Amino acid sequence: MKQETLIAVVEDDTEIRTLVAGLLSREGFEAAPCNGAAELDRLAERRRVDLIVLDLMLAGEDGLSICRRYRNGPVAIPILMVTAKGDDLDRIVGLEVGADDYLPKPFNPRELIARVRAILRRTRDVHQPPAAAAPPEIFQFCGWRLNSASRELRDPEGKLVDLTGAEFDMLMALVTHPQRVLNRDQLLDWTRGRSAAPFDRTVDVQLSRLRRKLGDNSKPPSVIKTIRGGGYLFSPQVQRERG
Q1: Considering just the CA atoms, what is the radius of gyration of the chain in Å?
Q2: CB of 233 within 8 A of CB of 225?
């Protein structure tokens, strides 16, 4: 029997926690309501958690702290951060600490499900080894190596660089379309699909994080260039080979 996708709903408001868990259950997911960090930790010790729907403002350990812990753990569990605080700074901070996506309250239930499904599609291999029959593609640029199957990025010295699921998807979109101007809508479509909201600024945040991880600190950036009025351009030549 196929195991259901387990989604932890971490929310200290009983009514909201029950509503979100019920919504996910009706969509065919296994929802595990958690009142806070302690219940989430106990759940993760017993079960494989496929996604955490995480409220930012929690009593006790807050959502940002929980997000940092689980992003830096042995298995980086995908995280959808949900909060009543809707300004850009809160959104950016949530993404900066490793959340895969961000949804402000109040939200449309269908948008929540769409974003959950989009994150799960992007991270579906996080708990699974790559299929032996499908050799990975290796993308090399400026001494860096990106493995499409293992989702690993290594710097020119061979050191592993941690990427969130969203960062990996964004980098894949860039390395598969090098030296080509890509607008925000294209990048949103390739990385988040139909879950993307109009005028979504997540692309800018993800690219800013990628620039730092790639050491692209020049002013203006030289690896991922911003094209005025056009979008973004991944400037290095990319070599593509089968692993």
Answers
A1: 18
A2: yes
The torsion angles phi and psi of 26, rounded to 5 degrees, stand at: -65, -25
Q: Exposed, middle or buried: residue 63 (CB in 10 Å: 0-12, 13-18, 19+)?
A: buried
Alpha helices in 107-236 (DSSP H): 109-122, 165-175, 184-192, 202-213
Backbone dihedral region for residue 74 (phi beyond 0: left; psi -120 to 50: alpha; all else: beta):
alpha
> Which residues are CB-contacts of 219 (< 8 A; sequence separation ≥ 6)?
none
SS3 state at 235: coil
Cα 190 vs. chain centroid, distance in angstroms? 13
Q: In what order do the strands lie in the sheet with 101-104?
A: 30-34, 6-10, 51-55, 79-83, 101-104
Which domains are present in the chain? 6-122 (3.40.50.2300), 137-242 (1.10.10.10)
Give the whole-angstrom CA distance, residue 66 versus residue 56: 9
Length of the chain: 243
- Tens digit of pLDDT at every position of the chain (243 positions): 345 789 999 999 999 999 999 999 999 999 999 999 999 999 998 888 999 999 988 888 988 889 888 877 666 789 998 887 656 666 666 677 778 888 888 888 999 999 899 888 877 654 444 444 456 789 999 999 999 888 899 999 999 999 888 888 899 999 999 999 988 877 877 776 544 454 456 788 888 889 999 999 888 889 999 988 878 999 999 998 876
Backbone angles phi, psi at 47, to 5 degrees: -130, 160
